[in-house]
Amino acid sequence: MEINRYIDHTVLKPTTTLEDIKNLCLECVEYNFAAACVPPLYVKLAKQFLGATESKVATVIGFPFGYSAIEAKVAETVLAIVDGADELDVVINISAVKNNDWEFLEKEIANLMLVIRERKKVIKVIIESGILTDDEIVKCCQLYAKYGVDFVKTSTGYAEKGASVHAVQLMRTNLPADIQIKASGGIRTLAFAQELIDAGATRIGASASVSIVKEAKA
Q1: CA-CA 20 to 30 A from 109: which of 101, 142, 169, 215?
Q2: Residues annotated as part of the active site
């Protein structure tokens, strides 16, 4: 297994600098990671650094708490695509989940999918599984399956709990085979990454990507 091709090499800390992005992209090229996941501010720069390599440019929308207005998320998405983003990791409105407001969440994803599908980009919806109940996770899977998203993603890395094998297994059981799962949040070792892949994840979001790959080679 080529673990590097499962990984979105990620830097999303609020203090991210130009130098951080340059280093991230150089590592993406060196290790042939699936994508470089960067803050929206740096999408254009990452696109330049990665050029014609296999690594995609991913960015985040509504990050990290998900409670920005639908119109704001749509605007963020449009701007990110204009700047060159290939993949959009969108935080759903977690407050709406907790309010059991599935009508709002349906409106949100419907508006986002219009923009993303028109421009033939990839969407990964971040449900923040670590702070949801199993029932909420299942309902999210049902809703986002209905809209044919590309990935359902576990976490932002900013909640008190990140990816878990249990959440990935639950998601895999409740999603159609053609919808992929991205596990992220707290993945720092090859062993944990492998557990998540075995559970059904097809993409791993990590900032410890280089050490994971070196561990695999060792």
Answers
A1: 169
A2: 89, 153, 182
Q: Are 80 and 56 in contact (CB under 8 A)?
A: no
Closest CA to 94 of 108, 115, 75: 108
Expressed in angstroms, the distance from the first to the final Cα of the chain is 14
| Structural domains in the chain (count) | 1
Question: Tens digit of pLDDT for each residue in 186-196?
Answer: 999 999 999 99
My answer on whether omega of the bond before 176 falls inside 30° of 0, hence cis, is: no
- Look up the pTM and report it: 0.97
Residue type, 13: K
- Which domain CATH number covers 24? 3.20.20.70
Containing structural domain, residue 182: 3-217
pLDDT tens readout for residues 39-80? 999 999 999 999 999 999 999 999 999 999 999 999 999 999
